[in-house]
Structure formats: C-alpha cells, structure tokens
Amino acid sequence: MTGRIFDIKRFCIHDGPGIRTTAFLKGCPMDCIWCHNPEGIGCGPDLIVRHERCIHCGTCRAVCPEGAVREERGVVRIDRAKCTLCGVCVDRCPPRAIQRVERDLSDDELVEELMRDKVFADISGGATLSGGEPLMQPEFSLSVLDKLKSRGMDTCIETSMLAPPDVIRALPELLDHVIVDIKLFDDEAHRRYTGTSNAQILENFRILGSRVK
Q: What residues contact 131, with CB distance under 8 A and at least 6 apart?
C-alpha cells in the first residue's frame, strides 16, 4: 500500500505529548483561508518554502516567470493560483530554501522511518500523523497507525475529522492520542472560511467520543 507525504519532521513538541516524529500527509478536503501548510492541500506535486533556510536574496521572485513568488513581512510565499510548478525557483534558489514536495512511500517504508526515533519515544513521545488531512488517505493512515501500534510506538493523529464515519470508528483502537482541530462551530462561517460544511465533522466528533474508553 502506498501513500503520499510532503514532510517528516523530527523532535516535534507541538504534535502531541513529549518529543514526537511527525509525518505530514498530502491532501486536504478543506481550503482554510489561514492554512498553515498550503503545500499539503493538493494531492499532487507542490512546492514548500523552508523559511529557516531563506536568506531573503530575492532570487526566487526575480526568476519566477509567473510572478507567483512574493515576500510579505519578511516571509516568502507562493501564490498557488499563479504557480505552474515549473521549478525555476527551486533550481535557482541559492540556499535551497524552496523545494518540491511529493514523496510516495509504502506503509512499511513510512513505519520504518518513524520507528527510527523510537528510542526517544520510549522516554517521552511517539509518532504523529498530520497533514494536510491524514484521513484523506484513510487506508494508508490506518495501516501505518496499526503497524506502529503493534511495534510499541505511542501513536497520535492530528485531524479535522472530515472523513467517512467508518474511518472514525476505526481510530480509537489504533491511537494513544487524537488532536481534533474543529475550525468553527457555526456552519455558515465554516463554509465561508474553509469551503466546507462542518455537519459531518461534528457528527464524527460525537462518534469518536462515544467510542473512546
């Protein structure tokens, strides 16, 4: 079974308790205006800006043929409505701060990547699936969580809960922790700012709550 990720970050302290290794899966059914990881929304190829590497030289803005790269308040951003993924900015960026994101892994390959840090997890922490929305790849995510759990890894998922109810029902047995990001409770506001209704999300939250021991 193969899934698509756009990043793996180690020594994370905000993706669940302790020190965690977080895999970020591609694809999200929502389009929040405040999205922190816009490179994770689409299921296909994309670009990511490694802000910690950026030296603000302006090369990316100068070479982009579509004018899709801009800098706002000292932060380089990519206008995905204009970007054609031509890769000129990737090739020309001196510190390699702009990178292509799209990596296909089997469930076993991702499990092995995450298990590399089990020595830290045994002290305090574990592995987290995030995104994007990891439940946009339900079979892949559930398989990874099941295999991590069977090998003694503390498991966590960060999810908006916008997924089929059957997937939500399968989660409790595979997780030690779940971080639920309910964007807004008002359905009209939720539609306005995320592009989707929250009706299924709230129902899924009730389903999850009824199955947590």
A: 24, 25, 26, 27, 28, 37, 40, 158, 159
pLDDT band at 213 (very low <50, low <70, confident <90, very high): low
Give ∠ CA 8-120-211 in degrees, rounded to 5. 75
pLDDT band at 136 (very low <50, low <70, confident <90, very high): very high
CA 174 – CA 176 distance, rounded (Å): 7
3-state secondary structure of 76: strand
E strands of the chain, at which residues?
A: 2-12, 19-25, 46-49, 69-72, 75-78, 98-101, 103-106, 125-131, 155-159, 177-180
Residue with tokens 């090998």: 151
Q: What is the pLDDT of residue 81?
A: 87
What pLDDT does 95 receive?
Answer: 95
Q: What are phi and psi of 198, to 5 degrees?
A: -100, 5
Buried b (16+ CB within 10 A) or exposed e, 77-114: ebeeeebeeeebbbeebeeebbbebbeebebeebbebb
What letter would DSSP give residue 167?
H
pLDDT tens, position by position, 71-111:
988 899 999 889 999 999 999 999 999 998 878 999 999 99
